[in-house]
Each structure stands twice: as C-alpha cells, then as structure tokens.
C-alpha cells in the first residue's frame, strides 16, 4: 500500500499540478530512450482481429477493413446498406500503461442508412474487452472510446472526445455516467489528417491529445457498476481497437509507446511522459 500511495501522490503532483513540477522530482535520464512501436505494419492486417456485428469473429464482411496504399481503410463500397453492422479491428494483444498515437482522416460519403450521429465518426477503443468474448449481435466492445470526429464544414465538432460503452470514469472527483463528453479540441473540416494520442496509465489516468495539445483528461476508468454501487470495477488494461461506424475513414499510422516497464517506478514514469509530451507531433498533410 505504501508504494501504491507514493505512486498516486507523484501522479497527482505531475498531472494535476502540471508537468513542470516533474523537474523538482527527478530530472529525465539523458540515456532514457523511448521508442514508438508500429502496431500497423503498413502492409497487411496479420496482427489484427475483425469483429463486425451480426458476423462471426474474423468474418471481414464486405472487406470492411483493408490495407490500401499503406493505409488501413474502413470502407463500405461492398455494402448495400449499413444495417447497424458496427465493426471493430482489434490489435492482437492488450496493453495497460502506454501512449498510443493514430493519424486518421475521413473520406467520401457515409454509407446508406448510417445513423446521423455516425457522420464522420470513428474511434479508438482502449481498455476494451477481448473480441472472443463479444456476442454475435454486440455492437461495441465494453471499453473506453477515444472518439474521432470530423467536421461538417460549418459547425463546431471537436475530436478526441470520450464515450463509454459499458463503462464510466471519474472527472473532477465525480463519477461521470453520461455516454459521451466533448473535448476542448478544434474542429477539423474536410479530409485533412489529424493526429490523436491517448496517454493511458492503467486504472489511474487517461489524457487525450490532438495535434500535440492536451484536450481532455479523466481518472479511474471503470466498468459500469452493479448492484446499485456508485463505482464499478476499475479497468487496469485491455484491448485496443479501431472502429467502423458507417463513414469511410483511413488510418495511416497506429503506434504505441509501451510504458509498462515504468509502471512501478512513478518518478521514472513521469520522466518518460515528460519527454514524450515535450514533443508536439503534428501530422503532415
């Protein structure tokens, strides 16, 4: 308990009071190297599992998920209509402590009968369930969604929001039970590339970034409670997946920095995070 208490004390100082406070704790090790691991190899989907509603595991209905020109495409050109066939593309293994980055853009037109709210809408699901445990008719994995939105050309529509299929979280010391919460990001109209990152620290903290700017943070990701409880079981780890929600979208980069080896060394973890967040990563158009 003492070590865990120290961990959360340092996290609170660093992430609630500001990263500059880190320097008073421990200067970054000049030999410290952080490396991005490419989850998408730019060639194929051999490390990924498909689960589409109304279809069996790994039945890639309509060739929804494909690789074209070194990009993951979510495409509906073989659909007659969407028919609520929400899909997800799962990476082969779960993660707990990490920084994930994706570069995405929306293209083309929404498939016929796609829901209005799903216009230029996709997402990165974190702390998700194993796709092998999903029901045939299940629409979304139990997870925390880093929601990806594109603008409609005129209205404000932020990206890197948070949505909660079967989950909830804590914000400003209160449990948030509403399904979605907007970030403070800008709106990205047209087919431009956007970079979204999520810093995920086990069951303690999640921070969203858009083109290098922090736009949202919350604590204690957890399952929906049972038996009348206020809070549910904390989510310490889980799968990562990309969404198919009826509007074509491309991902040209899906990469991660695995922070698991620093999970029990809060000062070193904070130093690595400071190094990572000091760089403002903006995608090329």
From TrEMBL:
User: What molecular function does GO assign, one term?
Assistant: hydrolase activity
The domain of life for this entry's organism is Bacteria
Which regions span the lipid bilayer?
Answer: 6-25
Q: Does the keyword Transmembrane helix apply?
A: yes
On whether Membrane is a keyword of this UniProt record, the answer is: yes
Keywords (alphabetical) are:
Membrane, Transmembrane, Transmembrane helix
**Occurrences of domain 3-keto-alpha-glucoside-1,2-lyase/3-keto-2-hydroxy-glucal hydratase (ranges):** 35-256
The name on file for this protein is 3-keto-alpha-glucoside-1,2-lyase/3-keto-2-hydroxy-glucal hydratase domain-containing protein
Origin species, per record, is Mucilaginibacter gossypiicola
